[in-house]
Amino acid sequence: MTLSLLCRAEGVVSRIQLNCPEGIAILPNVVPFGHATDLRTRLVDAIREIDIVPIELADDNAVPDCEIFINTIPESMPRSSIMIIGAGWWGGAAFATQPPAAWTQVDLHNPLPIGPYIAATLAVADVYLQIRDPRAVTGSRAYGWNAWTCTSEVGSDTSGTVPLGLDLSGIALAGVGAVGTAWMATLWATSGLSGSIAIVDSDAKGVSSSNLNRGLLFRRRDIGLQKAEVAATAAKGTIDWRPINGRFESSDIRPSLLVSAVDTNTARDAIQSRYPARTLSGSTRDLRAETMVGGRPGDGACLRCYNPLEAEVSDAQLRARVEQEGAGVLDELARGLGISNEELANRLEAPGCDAISDRLLAQLRAEYGDDTVPARFAVGFTSAMAGVLLAGETLRLMIHDEPDGIPDSKRVTFQFRRPESSINGRRVYPRDAVCPKCDPAAPSHEIWASRYDRWTSKASGKS
Ligand SMILES: [Zn+2]
């Protein structure tokens, strides 16, 4: 995962050197590409197949700009070095400092990839920030994230054990892009899973070169092929992926758990219209990864809640009009689109999901008192984190192992710029009082509520 994220960071990483002993047999479901059975060869082959940033074996005289140690504690930690470790549901990264003693006690034999993948995103986020915004990452520090407790605690109990043979049938994924492929890659790497999962993507253009920096299951040679089919082939394993090219809402799939990894509110609205018993959603904004667990009907949020529909007119068209006609046209535009002035302002500021928004940029520039903070971040690590956390919430729902006091509907946020801040964590996520899709007075409420209750009674029968 670390290599896959680094090699997609074109423009930030120019070259990767790998230091890995020869003669280590590779386990199944570790590296999605290549065929070699030796770990080192396989890693190099896979990164070359992805074909973005070049990789070579490390030579002894190399002086890298940044060194990442994985599950290895070096004797000294130079200024730009990162040490990462992950196990079970927890992953951590130490920057220019030795990791806390508790970290070395974690059980590295735990087969769950969630913690290690979290650690990988933390390392690569730091590499980006060292280059794009070095003032955000000064000093030595160490932090981690536990996807089970949604806190920074290392955690050592046995909660969240995924039983061998856990059947994931009844799940469908909508959106096989940056977040969706990270979700698939995480489940693929989790041993012991089975079942059939429909994966649906409606992008008729298929994989494009701009998807390579974030789509963890895409290689350059896949450009032009349908995303769901490419991802299903790359993540071939014990899960039977059923790729579908088209819109979820026009398919005949009736999942009991729908995982949303779509990236527009219009798409969220459309897939919520099918009212699956349970919904999960993963999304990103700037350097923030988020997951949402939807329902219970009438109380908890749905996929449409707090997500106003985008108007049919494109943001570029809107910007062009404001540039031509001046700010005076804003009121008229907002009225015409049926959105608030604030929402319109947000849209005008959002340059697209792989660039940092102008609003955040202005905030950063004001904070540092200059305008040299760069405008673009390649945010592959953010969507990877969203997908990994989303896979964690999927497994949590499927094993029905929820600690007492955790609400049915919740939202988890992880912000990479201030990972240690209290922004990061889990919160109750009540429904949006004005959301038309989950209005308890609407006829659809009864359908959704009966499906939800069926899910819940089946779940309590299992535990
Ligand atoms: Zn709603």
UniProtKB/TrEMBL annotation:
GO molecular function per UniProt: nucleotidyltransferase activity
Top-level lineage group: Bacteria
Keywords: Nucleotidyltransferase, Transferase
UniProt keyword Transferase present: yes
THIF-type NAD/FAD binding fold domain span: 169-433
Keyword Transferase carried by entry: yes
Any matching Pfam family: ThiF
Name this polypeptide is given: ThiF family adenylyltransferase
Originating organism: Luethyella okanaganae
